[in-house]
Amino acid sequence: MDAFMGIVNSAWVFLFNNVLSRPAIFIGLIVLVGYILLKRKWYEVLAGFIKAMVGYMILQVGAKQLVASVTPILNGIQQRFALNAVVIDPNFGFVAANSALESIGVTTSFAMITLLIAFIWNIVLILFRKYTKVRTLFTTGHIMVKQAAVATWIIYFLIPGFRNMTGIIVTGLLIGIYWSVFSNLTVEATQDLTEGAGFAIGHQQMLGVWFADRFSGKIGDPEKGVDNIKLNGALQLFDDYVVSTTILMLVFFGIVLIVIGPSILMELDAGNFPAGLAFPVYILEKCASFAVNLVILKTGVRMFVSEMVESFNGISNSILKGCLPAVDCAATYAFGSSNAVTLGFLFGAIGQIIAIAGLLITKSPLMIIPGFVPLFYDNATIGLYANKKGGFKALIVMCIGSGLIQVLGSALAITLFGMSGFGGYVGNFDWATLWPAMGFIIKYLSIPGVLLCIVGMLVIPQLQYRHNKERYFDLAESED
Q1: Is residue 43 over pLDDT 60?
Q2: Distance CA 473, CA 311 (A)
Q3: DSSP assignment, residue 135?
Q4: Which of 92, 240, 253, 312 falls 20 to 30 Å from 26 in CA-CA distance?
Q5: Strand pairing partners for 325?
Q6: What pTM was computed for the model?
Q7: What phi, psi does 289 have (nearest 5°)?
Q8: Nearest CA to 226 among 329, 331, 335, 343?
Q9: Distance, CA of 358 to chain centre
Q10: CA–CA separation, 192 vs 198, rounded Å?
């Protein structure tokens, strides 16, 4: 038995290290399997695999460079104002969760077992979609890794008696249902935004996407969206999103960079701010790099999404019938308004600044430092959906509200989950709303609370189905 379990564990470690934790490879293999099931010629299968893999790698380059370009600014704010606080960002949250697990003598490999159980459970829920009404397979590997670690710590912290394999199984079921149900919740909204492109969102602001899609129409007018605003004279510069992004970043981050000062930035961003480079030139290049990275990101999106969606028809028509891939929220940036991406980010930042100012004014014992992933990806994504359904007014309201929630909800979650001493927390919309809410239920009801959360989430797709029985499963198909 021990030998068998050793083989299973080795196989899982290999799969995790070489596939699940390598999203470009993961997406490429999905395309490869899909094209094989569609009985494509071998060279078409190979070409699809390469294009999907390379496209996702291009997306990753753009995404990583976006993070790299803003990280020195966020670190500069922290250093300039001598702030010592918790950073809300999934990368910091992942490290913090692993440190927290190690502090109670638990190996971080437990979180990887959680991931395996969660992923298998997602597939099971799809296989029984006739009863579960789940239509989406969560494929965003790097997100899955981070969420599995944080969720494992949450359960271990809230229910100390579950610091064993039983706790791992329970956590796997909980996180797997979250992936399945909340990515499924984005199907209608994403098919509408992308005009039937054939994917859903598998990230960390899925509840936020649904909320923006559902309620933005009650706030504003979709006919008065970002791209419908008539600009005259010099304002026509903002019709081009590359120009508008650079100008908006100059106005917003230019001021922040000046406040931080060249000496701190030269220390924190030496690779981009060498001795002899004038400070105004550094500011211009730093702000323009944001637009450059957005172009790179969108190029990768177009390449891998087209291959993935077409090939996934082979999987959804055979192995996982009527199923959509749930992918990185950045995949939506090639659709809708390009300017909504930038404006969503900026208004989300304003919301975060207001919330942080509130913490400072009230002399909160816990201070929050913004991380780039929630700051950009949550708010840019929510801004896209809000603009689609409620125009510019809805974008402003939704994104400022999102920024407020990210900071204040995360402060609540950090306290609830005992993470203040480990320096990080996820910080994305779902983890500042849904997970603290479930955390309170689990804290005060223990095991019955976990069961209540699981049953409560499983009810959601049932309600979705009742709302649109005729077209519910038809939506899980791309429109040619």
Answers
A1: yes
A2: 18
A3: -
A4: 92
A5: 137
A6: 0.80
A7: -65, -25
A8: 343
A9: 26
A10: 10
